[in-house]
Amino acid sequence: MDRILAAKAKLAAVPAAAFDAEQAAALNDKLLRATITEVHVPKAGRPNVGGHPLCLGCQVYRTGLVGNVVDDVQQSFPVIMAKALGGDGFTTPIDPSEDEIYEWVRRAESYTSIVIGTYNGHLHPQQLEMVKALAQNSGKPVTVVALRNPYDLFPLPESVYTLAAYEYTAHSTAAVADVLLGRHAATGRLPIATPEQEAQ
Is the confidence at residue 1, as pLDDT, over 70? Predict the structure, then answer.
């Protein structure tokens, strides 16, 4: 018993390591940026977003059975991306209609490029239909960022430049913006096989 008390007293005498919040935040940012993954680069290379891109994406929502839209404009992909890239950002429905898709194709003509964030697009295929329509009919370079599962990126046209961010947060969106602006390389590795790799 005396030995246990002595050991506890010895441990209590050791000062606890101070937690450095700034250092932890910097490490978290470094790790997050290291995960951004370049999934597909078109033959023409990574597109230049230009001075006035159109940034689109649905609002973040909870993916459980009792899922609700999370009302957080502060982490809205299109809003943050537009601010970072100098364009305009618009929130799209989780499942945009054919008429809404047509309207975005029409409006895209006044922009230098299109940047789209998908969120579970493999479960909400109208998001991917919007990407395909913009890639095939807008005449603008299209970049797509998977904000959750990278499966969204596999059925897209060859001309689309794709990145996987793996999460829908303000931090990941800022990291993606830095990649698109050439400030940071997308060095992450895809944790799953692509359909082409599975076919080999």
Answer: no
* Closest to 188 in 3D by CA, of 18, 3, 38, 2: 38
Cα gap 92→96, rounded to integer Å: 7
Rounded to whole angstroms, the Cα distance separating 77 from 175 reads 11
The 8-class DSSP code of residue 53 comes to -
pLDDT in tens, 123-170: 999 999 999 999 999 999 999 999 999 999 999 999 999 999 999 999
Distance, CA of 156 to CA of 153 (rounded, Å): 6
Residues β-bridged to residue 69: 61
Tokens of 3: 């030995």
Average pLDDT, the chain: 89
- For 108-144, b where at least 16 C-beta lie within 10 A, e where not — what string? beebbbbbbbbbbbbebebbbbbbbbbbeebebbbbb
